[in-house]
Amino acid sequence: LETLSLRFQRHCENTLALARHLEHHHKVAWVNYAGLPGHSCHHIAKKYYREGLFGSVLTFGVKGGRDCGQKFIESVKLASHLANVGVAKTLVIHPASTTHEQLTEQEQVASGVSPDMIRVAVGIEHIKDIIHDFDQALDQVEIPAETFHQATHSALSLPHHHSDGGQSHLEHEAEQIRRKSIETVRPCPPP
């Protein structure tokens, strides 16, 4: 308890740095983190959170969908494959193949889980080590040629996602559900 504030500050600093790195990675379709200026609720987060501390959990999508997301999880070396949060170690999970596996794809999408989603609880390791681990894991992901240049969905309709075209029916449905849930469950009024 005595070191909680120091640890939480490091968690948040690392999470923001990782989010910034991932949003420019060519194998990442989207990044969802309120600390990014393009996030629809960034202005609310800046108002209510301590300066620069936007939390230690982010989600992102690996281009190529479910199989590519699973390959990323299998390829991390520093991060652990666990569903916890708030521990010193970076933890990753692929909800579509773990915590939400019992649901159909449509039920997963309705609950906000897309096939490509990776949830990350960022730890307090050195950020260069975390980024190196994610980069080497993403290097192991082989995106199918037909999906490499297609867009995957945009989580929360963030403007910084990598998109250059069509979506599958399921991806379109996921985006529509996310937009509706943002508008009704977590409204973020303009600044």
Any chance you could write out the topology, listing elements then pairs?
Blueprint lengths: L3 H19 L5 E5 L9 H7 L8 E6 L3 H10 L4 E2 L9 E3 L11 H6 L6 E5 L5 H14 L4 H4 L20 H16 L7
Parallel strand pairs: 3-4
Antiparallel strand pairs: 1-2, 2-5, 4-5
What does this entry look like structurally?
By secondary structure, this protein is α+β, with helices and mostly antiparallel strands. Helices cover 40% and strands 11% of the residues. A five-stranded mixed β-sheet has the order 1-2-5-4-3. The longest helix has 19 residues, at 4-22. It is globular and about 45 Å long. The termini are far apart. The model is unreliable at 151-166 and 180-186 (pLDDT under 50).
Q: How is the largest sheet built, in terms of strand order? A: 1-2-5-4-3
Gross geometry: globular
- Give the uncertain stretches in residue-range form: 151-166, 180-186
Q: Helix segment count? A: 7
In what range is the share of β-strand residues? 5-15%
Instruction: Give the integer mean of the pLDDT values.
Output: 81
End-to-end separation = 35 Å
Task: Count all strands and give the number.
Answer: 5
Order of helices and strands: HEHEHEEHEHHH
Assign a percent range to the helix content.
Answer: 25-40%
Biggest sheet features: 5 strands, mixed
- Structure classification: alpha+beta
Rg calculated over all Cα atoms: 16 Å
Looking at the chains present, what oligomeric state does this protein adopt?
single chain
